[in-house]
C-alpha cells in the first residue's frame, strides 16, 4: 500500500531517511519559516544547493515578521512567491522519491500533508554536439544527448506548431526511467498512437538504460531479421519523421530516439539527400540499394559460382581463382567464412578499444592478418578482395548492419553447400521475411510492395522539392490494422 505524507514533518523526513538509508548524497536541512518547522530534501549533484538557498533566503527575509500555520504557509509559498515550482505537488513517499531522483527539491512543511516541489535541477550532462553515427555534409550539426528534457527541447525548437505533443511515462522497476512519446496529433493515426501507448504502459523490464531495450516490446513476438522500429541521433531527422505522422520515443539516458513505424526504404535515406541536387541524391540512393544487395549476396554468389557453375567466370579470372584455391588448404566457402569472421573481429576490436588507438589497431591488424594469411597460403587473394568489398558495402547502409552481416554468412553457407538452389531458396526466405513484416499496421515494403507511384518520387529516386512539396509523404492515409487491432 502506498504511504501518504502525514501532517508531521518529522515523520515524513524519517520515512524518506528510511527509504534512502544512509545514502551519502541524500541531503536534508531543517529550517523555520514564519514560525513553521520545515525540511529541505534533495540529492547533492542532482540539485543545486546554491540556487535553492538564494531563493529560500529571499523568501525568508520577507516572512520574518509573519506567522502562519502549516497549511497557510503551503498556500503562501505555492501561490504568492516567485519560487519556481513544479506543476504537481507531493502527496506520498513514492512521489517524493520520483521527484527527488529527478533532480528537484522536495520541501516538507509541518502541519501540511502535501509537499512542494522546487525546480533546482543541476545535473551534469554532455553538451549538444554532432552525432557520431549519422554524419552529414550539410544540414544541422546537432545530435541528441542523454538528458531527456534537452532532447525534447531540441524537437520543440524545430516543431513550433500547436499540434506537436509530448507525453511522459516511466518504465523499469528498478531504474524508473522516464520515457517521452512525441507525435503530431493531427498527423499520427489514432490507432497507432493508442497501440504504442498501451505497449509502453505494459512494458515489464527490471532496468531500462537505453532506448534499444524497448524495441522487443513494441513489435510482434517471434524472430525477424528486419525490424519495424528504427532509431536516429539527429533531432532534424526525428522532426521530419514526426511531420510524416510517425511517433518518436525518447528515453532518458539514451541519445538514440526510436522511430515507428520504420519502413524498409528509410534505411537508404539520409538528411543529405534533401540538401543536394535531386539527380545526385537519386544516384547515391541507387548506389545504396546496390551496396545492400552486394553486401548480402556477393560472397554467396562468388562461392556458389566458383564451386558449381565456374563457366560463368571469364577464363582469365577462373584461372586465378583456381590457382588461389589450389594453394589453400580449406574449401572456398570455408575460406570466405573465415575471412568474414576475421573482418568482424577486427571491427569489434577497433570499436571497443580506446579511440586514439582503435583505428590504428584495426588498420594494422587488417593489413598484417590479410597479407600474412595470403602469403602463408591460408586464404586466397580473390576471397580477401570479395570479403573486403562486401564489408565496405555493409557500412554504406549502417542501419542494416546486423541483418546484413548474419544474412551474408547464411548465403555463404547456402551457396557453398547447396549451390544455386540453396541461394535461390534462401533469397526467397529473405523476401518472405521482408514482405511479411507488418510495421504497426503498415507493410514494411511500402510503397514498393504493393507498388505505388510515389515510390519513384522519394523512395527509389528523389524528385525535386517543387514536386515533393506538393504531396509530402504521410502515413496518415494508411489505415493501421493487424497489430493495432489486437491491442484495442
What does this entry look like structurally?
With 488 residues, the chain is α+β, with helices and mostly antiparallel strands. It has 3 domains: 9-118, no CATH class; 148-274, no CATH class; 278-435, no CATH class. Helices cover 47% and strands 11% of the residues. The chain has 18 helices and 11 strands. Strands 5-6-8-9-7 form a 5-stranded antiparallel sheet, with helices on both faces. Strands 1-2-3-4 form a 4-stranded antiparallel sheet. A two-stranded antiparallel ribbon has the order 10-11. α9 (278-308) runs antiparallel to α13 (381-396). The radius of gyration is 29 Å and the shape is elongated. Mean pLDDT is 85; it is low at 480-488.
Can you give the mean pLDDT? 85
Count the domains.
3
Sheet with most strands = 5 strands, antiparallel
Number of strands: 11
- Helix fraction bin: 40-55%
Binned strand content: 5-15%
Q: Structural class of the helix and strand makeup? A: alpha+beta
Question: What order do the helices and strands come in, and which of them pair?
Answer:
Layout: H1 9-20, E1 26-33, E2 36-43, H2 49-62, H3 70-79, H4 93-101, E3 105-109, E4 116-118, H5 148-158, E5 164-171, E6 177-184, H6 190-201, H7 215-218, E7 230-232, H8 235-243, E8 247-251, E9 257-260, H9 278-308, H10 315-326, H11 332-352, H12 355-375, H13 381-396, H14 401-417, H15 420-435, E10 438-439, E11 442-443, H16 455-458, H17 465-468, H18 483-487
Antiparallel strand pairs: 1-2, 2-3, 3-4, 5-6, 6-8, 7-9, 8-9, 10-11
Helix pairs in contact: 5-8, 9-13, 9-14, 11-12, 11-13, 11-14, 14-15
Amino acid at each position: 500500500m502506498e504511504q501518504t505524507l502525514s501532517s508531521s514533518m518529522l515523520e515524513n523526513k524519517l520515512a524518506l531517511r528510511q527509504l534512502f538509508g544512509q545514502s551519502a548524497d541524500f541531503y536534508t536541512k531543517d529550517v523555520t519559516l514564519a514560525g513553521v518547522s520545515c525540511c529541505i530534501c534533495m540529492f547533492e549533484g542532482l540539485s543545486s544547493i546554491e540556487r535553492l538557498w538564494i531563493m529560500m533566503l529571499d523568501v525568508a527575509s520577507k516572512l520574518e515578521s509573519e506567522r502562519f500555520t502549516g497549511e497557510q504557509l503551503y498556500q503562501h509559498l505555492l501561490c504568492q512567491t516567485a519560487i519556481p515550482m513544479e506543476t504537481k505537488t507531493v502527496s506520498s513517499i513514492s512521489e517524493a522519491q520520483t521527484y527527488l531522483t529527478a533532480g528537484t527539491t522536495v520541501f516538507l512543511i509541518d502541519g501540511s500533508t502535501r509537499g512542494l516541489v522546487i525546480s533546482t535541477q543541476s545535473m551534469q550532462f554532455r553538451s549538444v554536439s554532432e552525432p557520431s553515427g549519422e554524419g552529414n555534409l550539410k544540414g544541422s550539426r546537432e545530435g541528441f544527448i542523454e538528458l531527456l528534457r534537452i532532447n525534447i527541447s531540441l524537437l520543440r525548437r524545430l516543431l513550433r506548431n500547436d499540434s506537436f505533443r509530448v507525453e511522459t511515462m516511466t518504465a523499469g522497476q528498478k531504474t524508473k526511467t522516464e520515457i517521452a512519446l512525441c507525435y503530431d496529433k493531427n498527423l499520427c493515426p489514432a490507432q497507432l498512437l493508442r497501440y504504442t501507448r498501451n505497449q509502453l504502459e505494459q512494458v515489464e523490464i527490471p532496468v531500462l538504460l537505453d532506448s534499444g531495450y524497448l524495441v522487443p516490446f513494441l513489435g510482434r513476438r517471434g524472430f525477424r531479421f528486419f525490424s519495424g522500429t528504427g532509431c536516429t541521433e539527429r533531432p532534424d531527422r526525428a522532426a521530419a519523421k514526426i511531420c510524416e505522422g510517425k511517433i518518436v520515443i525518447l528515453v532518458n539516458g539514451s541519445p538514440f530516439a526510436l522511430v515507428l513505424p520504420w519502413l524498409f526504404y528509410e534505411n537508404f535515406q539520409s538528411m543529405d539527400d534533401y540538401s543536394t541536387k535531386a539527380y545526385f541524391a537519386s544516384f547515391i540512393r541507387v548506389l545504396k540499394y546496390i551496396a545492400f544487395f552486394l553486401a548480402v549476396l556477393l560472397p554467396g554468389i562468388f562461392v556458389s559460382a566458383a564451386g558449381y557453375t565456374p563457366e560463368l567466370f571469364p577464363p582469365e579470372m577462373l584461372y586465378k581463382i583456381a590457382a588461389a584455391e589450389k594453394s589453400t588448404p580449406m574449401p572456398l566457402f570455408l575460406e570466405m567464412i573465415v575471412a568474414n569472421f576475421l573482418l568482424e573481429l577486427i571491427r569489434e576490436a577497433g570499436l571497443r578499444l580506446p579511440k586514439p588507438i582503435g583505428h590504428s589497431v584495426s588498420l594494422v591488424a587488417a593489413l598484417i592478418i590479410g597479407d600474412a594469411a595470403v602469403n602463408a597460403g591460408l586464404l586466397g587473394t580473390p576471397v580477401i578482395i570479395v570479403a573486403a568489398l562486401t564489408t565496405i558495402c555493409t557500412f554504406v547502409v549502417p542501419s542494416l548492419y546486423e541483418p546484413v552481416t548474419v544474412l551474408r554468412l547464411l548465403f555463404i553457407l547456402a551457396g557453398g553447400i547447396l549451390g544455386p538452389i540453396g541461394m535461390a531458396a534462401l533469397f526467397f526466405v529473405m523476401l518472405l521475411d521482408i514482405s511479411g513484416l507488418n510495421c504497426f499496421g503498415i507493410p514494411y515494403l511500402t510503397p514498393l510492395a504493393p507498388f505505388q507511384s510515389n515510390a519513384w518520387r522519394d523512395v527509389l529516386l528523389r524528385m525535386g522539392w517543387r514536386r515533393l512539396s506538393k504531396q509530402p509523404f504521410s502515413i496518415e492515409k494508411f489505415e493501421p490494422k493487424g497489430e493495432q487491432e489486437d491491442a484495442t
